[in-house]
Fold these 3 entries.
Entry 1:
Amino acid sequence: MALLPELAESAASGEKARIYAEMRRLGAVPMVALIFRHLATLPGGLEWTWGAIGPAWKSGRLQETAWKIAGETPLDPIAAFPREALTALGVDDAAIEEIRIVARAYNLANPVNLLTVTCLSRVLGGAKASVALDACAWSPPVAPGPLVAMTAPADLSPEVSALLELVAAPGSANGPRVVQSLYRHFGHRPQFLALLVTCLLPRFRDGSIDRGVATIRAAMSRAADAIVPTMDAPPAPDPGIGAAFERFGFVIPQMIVVGRLLEEAIRN
């Protein structure tokens, strides 16, 4: 399975490393999302993105709005994971906490990422700043953590790769697929990953995840109406930036739904 190129956090240096650090701090998360790790592989992509959206992140307005939308969207749940089933799969109390932290981190990151992509897509479409961004002092919440490491794509076992094929986002014809980062944090727990995928597949097939995605995307679009007029940016330096926004505009809301379902299933 060909995967989307990305610049790992450990490989970032200079301005890219500085932007990564700001994204972690202001996003209240211990990691940088795949959309931004991919943009960092495009000439000027990460720098252009942060120059355009950074002021809205620094105000906290974008994050607070995105978190509220994601938390209030009604969803059809998956079955709760019985403690006995998790124990049988080798998932002890420490592992349950590890999984909860992953879910919490991505449930903070993905709503912010989606509203970011929604706003930036409009900027690419020609939207111009018409009002000043309200200045305010904002401090992000404490990030969850520590976060268990993702399995590198090259280190995924054939069994885990086959599982991820069932949920990976489709790419363009003969192009790379998006293996969402959340799943890769469970690459070392194939039994739990198999349980999660098995519980999610009926929700993919009955259309309930798609309905949640549509509701979230519509709400984020309405929220962008108030943010985009405060944004301005020069022309994008690479056409791949727009293509990335288009691709992730569908991948990210799906993972908002998946993250919520996971966090609720493992809550007890």
Entry 2:
Amino acid sequence: MSDKTTLVAEKRTDFGKGAARKIRRSGNIPAVMYGHGTEPVHISLPGHDTMMALKQANALLTIVIDGKEQLALAKDVQRDAIKPVIDHVDLVVVRKGEKVVVDVAVHLEGEAAPETVVTLDNNTLQVEALATNIPENVVISVEGLQAGTQILAGAVELPEGATLVTDEEALVVNVTQAISAEELEAELAEAEAEAGIEREESDEDAAEAAEGESEGDEAKAEGDDA
């Protein structure tokens, strides 16, 4: 990923919750940019453009302040708990040729063998890559994999230029045998019995029980007649 999004920012001179609310009311987003031993710079970012840019994980941003450009990555994005808006952004300064450590999403493709279940134990991998060439994702094929197959982080093929930071022994993909409905029902019943939970008899169970009792009564009547 080498495309950069340019955001024109304004320096902030007012701070605090009241100032931040005022910025958000105007359609902008309060942010702070720091790194490489420089003093933190408090800025205001254009709301819509920033939200669109941050839809892409690890997006490389070109922040323009007073006509000067600075490359940055979003280190922390604070989002409103209810509204689909961003409350604040922490940006870390990066430079061309510099390597950074980021979390990259794992994407599965293909279909495993029939009657198997594929579990993604780690949905991201931490990798080191050039700030100007951060991979969008890591792709793992599960095509035809049989039950019992496990893929560890060290076996994952990474995009060119990226090196693994995550522990090589970390489990990423686990392929197991699918459980049948009967086995699932039996396991659930066993777990409930161990927990002392009594099941309510379903209409279907009641009907089967009644049918069994009816057949038993008929057999007894036939025995008596004989």
Entry 3:
Amino acid sequence: MEADHRETSALIIGGTQGLGLAIARALIAAGCRNLVIAGRSAERGAKAAAEIGATYRQADLADTDQIIRLVDDATAAMGRVTALVNAGAATDRGSVLDTTPALWDRMMAVNARSPFFAIQRVAQRAREAGHAASIVNILSMVVHCGQSFLAPYSASKAALANVTKNAAQALRGDHIRVNAINCGWMDTPGEDETQRRFHGAGDGWLADAEARQPFGMLVKPDHVAGLASYMLSPQSGVMTGAIVDFDQNVAGAYPE
């Protein structure tokens, strides 16, 4: 899956670490020279941008108006946005029994509402300028169900899965493609923080977790980044509305 991004102007929301940063690196390796990465942490974002030669913009996914302004800012900085990645997310825990309205609203705002309006604004600007665009939403295998302690997270990602399909249908006439990736359990700095914060994990949690996996590893960001780069590139042709499971556990399978 070779990708050519020499003509790409990309905005990666949630692009300062983990999978988002891996996608940024993949785009640069394929020739992208116009790239804005966005995230909450100014310190982390500035460091990542300097490392890969991108532009950093601070943005909080909980603030949808800020995300809309981010798209306009990235458009002004690069002249246009031809590729958008929605890679940021909140992963707070909550079950159907203990999720509060405040937690539910925050998860939907961060994981579904702001990505929706980022897609909307990129599409509006692309239509106004008359150019094609491609969008990739980073989802999760939890869209198929999810663990009991991931009720609001699973619901928010399932909502974004529907947005992916609906937007792909609505925007195909404008040559704007929208696809998504359902990621499995992934080895990222964010996951390390989550395991320590919510599950009391120690330094050896990753080795223990990987030893229990069919392929002896968690999903790696670089592997997923290659697929995202392809989806965003002209080489993926007319592909739109696709949601690809990227995991070693097959949804719907049962123990044999």
